[in-house]
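Q: Is it fine to ask for two folds in a single conversation?
A: Yes, each is treated on its own. Send the first.
Q: Here.
A: Result:
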Amino acid sequence: MNNPIIDPRVIQHTLIGAAVTETQLLAHLEQSLTYGFGAAMVQGSWVSLARDRLSGTDVTVASALDFPEVGTMTSAGKAAEAAELARQGAEQIDIGVQIGWLKSGKTQAFFDDIRGVVEASGVPIKVMLELPLLDSREREIAIELSVQAGVSYVKNASSGAVEIANPESIRFLKERVPGGVGVKASGGIKSAEQVRALLDAGADLVGTSAGITILSGPLGAEVGSY
């Protein structure tokens, strides 16, 4: 039975990894349907299979690029891959951003990199801003440029290796984005209690691989998550 304090539609059920098999991926998609998650987050190589299984359902196909090694792709390559993911059926795409460019003062290149993906894909884009890697001024610039580039969501981080999602970071983002731009929490999200705190802080979406335990278990139950 779903945890009554968590709406499963806010959870983006995540399965990304080098060794993910077709059997695991299909089970992941079935879980997304069974539990009513808002989206199934899968790597690009499995997008077309996810589209075939989830077409006509309420579960969105989501994917990620320039990830997990964030900010390593060329802008042209990133835009081309975003267009291909959308063509294969991705309805939302999370992207890494060029943190090194931002820190080097290359703000136009940082903006163009994001804008290129937005224009090429034609689907909602979520940017992984890696807040712990930015100083206070860089955080403000990153948010401002991302919004100007047309993103649909800003994220605190790409994974728990960068930051464990926390209310402070989510509140920081929520206070700085205009209406119409959402906030996605990501990184080490393991319990219903944690999800509730993130939603209360202003998160619109939550990315986690622990969604089943979060919905099924009591407050405070924890499992490992991406």
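Q: Second one now.
A: Result:
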Amino acid sequence: MIGDLSYGFRKTLRTSVDNADARVREELKKEGFGVLTEIDVKSTMKEKLGADFRPYRILGACNPPLAHKALTEEIDIGLLLPCNLVVYEGDEEGTTVVSVLDPVQQLGVAGRDDMAEMAVEVQARLKRVMDAL
């Protein structure tokens, strides 16, 4: 199942979080992205709050040529980078949800019409990642 959020795109897979995470990374690589950051929310919640939480990972993906172009055009655009994806255990047993922030929405807050074409390109690449899952 695939669904749209007002700020991104979501897909539910019938697989484990680990398998979905590996597939996401593989498909990102095909589109020229690497994962620069990873936050294990479950373990962070346990460590910082003593709270139990479902398996939940936030991945910060970056396409170096596109990031370089964006940063060259506006140095502070780094506030809106990298592209965030989440991979987490779904509500239904045996499912994992993958969501990605829509770069058109994300970069739109900069109010830079000259960056719209780049945002659309990043969006197309990330949609292909989601479609391939």
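Q: Anything structural to flag on that second result?
A: Two points. The domain at 2-128 is CATH 3.30.310.70 (TATA-Binding Protein). DSSP finds five helices and six strands in the chain.
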